[in-house]
Specification:
Layout: E1 4-5, E2 10-12, H1 32-41, H2 47-50, H3 57-70, E3 74-76, E4 82-91, E5 94-106, E6 115-116, H4 123-136, E7 138-139, E8 143-147, H5 153-160, E9 168-171, E10 177-183, H6 186-195, E11 201-205, H7 207-222, E12 234-241, E13 248-250, E14 253-256, H8 264-271, E15 275-280, H9 286-295, E16 300-304, E17 310-315, H10 319-324, H11 330-333, H12 336-346, H13 353-358, E18 362-365, H14 368-376, E19 382-385, H15 391-399, E20 410-412, E21 422-423
Parallel strand pairs: 6-11, 8-12
Antiparallel strand pairs: 1-5, 2-3, 4-5, 4-10, 5-12, 7-21, 8-11, 9-10, 13-20, 14-18, 14-19, 15-17, 16-17, 16-19
Helix pairs in contact: 3-4, 4-7
Length: 426
């Protein structure tokens, strides 16, 4: 099954500056102004490699990488290592932490059933990441994947070897504390490697990067830059126990805009066929009331068109979904996003899958307040507030060989970029 291995990670040297000023959040959530702020604090920030700019951005990244290596800003580990990575954070008003390992994982086509996706991807992001890999032959950030381990054997090993002070630690501007332990003990590494011989991996975050890594591996073989078994056959992945108590998945809400004909009463009249409808008076209680229904196993949404009131929609039964999507597995049919997309966005709003993929009439946000403000400001016609997708649902859809609609999950917190990198030159 999954093949993992230690690797000589590339990391910042002490000459580069404070680690807090060298790391950054994922590239795709950073604005141009935020990028400039990171570089003002330290021109060696990883953002110059992960999100290069200029007329020739990918060449720029390649040149900067070489310069930093030559100047000793980036150095490689002396020995192959496994990296224990922990994030301590606040979610739902509670302080939590999640801990896993960063390793190299052998790339496998999805058809082999060893590494499984759960969401559809967009081609533009894959093209960008592919060009960056071609220019640098490096992973600057990790993919995030889950594994099943009923006895939590691996997590016990991870916890045992992360009791001492971390090798790297800092707290970012979002009050997330990042810790990294560098494990080079061959016995510990062998134990962790053997744990995964019978396991599948489920991609939680980073589908674009995984598909890009497969494309890059194939490209390198075609160009004879690498052969089977070389470093290009592996990708840097963060592995986390699927039942880790710190695992948090936020919902991604849907905002609708620019529909030619939008009539709230007409929409609700059509919704009556599929949903129990109840008007509510306090928007601030919406998430709390939806959570009650979530815990009861019901499929429920908040429909908001502005003001202080909102509409609670609760699915009556799954028969319409099964009739409309007979070829989908039960796991996919019963997803909240499947219900919303199929019965409301597609059937009633006439927003088809291509429209959704191109975000013509649809915008996504993980922030409840942003969704409410977006509608109240008049920027959007309405919002649908969702409950989060369960981790077990992600697993079941992946095992069925299917994918969820885009933006079905938001794993929190995102991994920081810059603690360790995976250069594919060995």
């Amino acid at each position: 099954m999954a093949v993992i291995k230690a690797f000589k990670g590339m990391r910042y040297s002490k000459n580069a500056g404070e680690i807090k000023e060298l790391c950054c959040p994922p590239y795709d959530i950073i604005s141009d102004s935020q990028r400039e702020e990171y570089l003002k604090k330290n021109p060696n920030n990883i953002i110059r490699l992960e999100l290069p700019k200029g007329e020739n951005p990918y060449n720029n990244a390649s040149n900067i990488l070489k310069m930093w290596q030559e100047n000793g800003i980036l150095i490689k580990e002396d020995k192959p290592a496994v990296y224990i990575y922990e994030e301590e954070f606040t979610a739902y008003n509670k302080r939590k932490s999640i801990k896993g390992i960063i390793v190299r994982v052998k790339l496998e086509e999805f058809s082999k059933g060893v590494i499984l996706p759960h969401e559809f991807t967009l081609s533009k992001a894959k093209e960008d990441r592919f060009n960056l890999m071609k220019a640098t032959n490096c992973n600057f950030s990790q993919i995030y994947a889950l594994y099943m381990d009923e006895t939590h054997t691996t997590l016990n090993t991870i916890d045992k070897h992360s009791q001492d002070k971390a090798d790297l630690e800092f707290t970012d501007n979002d009050n997330v504390t990042h810790r990294l332990w560098i494990i080079t003990d061959e016995g510990v590494i062998a134990k962790l490697v053997s744990d995964f011989t019978d396991r599948k991996l489920y991609i939680a975050d980073g589908h674009h990067r995984y598909e890009t890594a497969l494309n890059y591996r194939n490209y390198c073989r075609e160009k004879r830059f690498s052969k089977e078994g070389d470093a290009q056959d592996y990708q840097m992945i963060y592995l986390v126990d699927m039942e880790h108590p710190g695992l948090v998945v936020f919902p991604t809400h849907r905002l609708v805009r620019d529909l030619e004909s939008f009539n709230k009463e007409s929409i609700l009249n059509e919704c009556k066929e599929y949903f129990e409808i109840e008007e509510k008076t306090d928007v601030e209680n919406m998430e709390r009331e939806l959570d009650v229904l979530y815990k009861q196993g019901k499929k429920a949404f908040g429909f908001f068109c502005g003001g202080s009131n909102w509409i609670q929609l609760v699915l009556k039964d799954f028969r319409p979904i099964k009739e409309l999507l007979p070829d989908l597995s039960k796991a996919s049919q019963e997803l909240d996003v499947t219900v919303l997309h199929t019965l409301i966005l597609e059937k009633i709003f006439k927003i088809d899958k291509e429209n959704m993929a191109n975000q013509i009439n649809l915008t996504y946000t993980k922030y409840f307040e942003e969704a409410i403000e977006g509608v109240n400001s008049g920027k959007f016609q309405c919002a649908f507030i969702l409950n989060p997708t369960r981790v077990t649902e992600i697993r079941d859809v992946a095992l069925a060989g299917e994918k969820m609609p885009q933006k079905s999950t938001y794993f929190y917190p995102k991994m920081i970029t810059g603690l360790v990198m995976n250069e594919l030159s060995d």
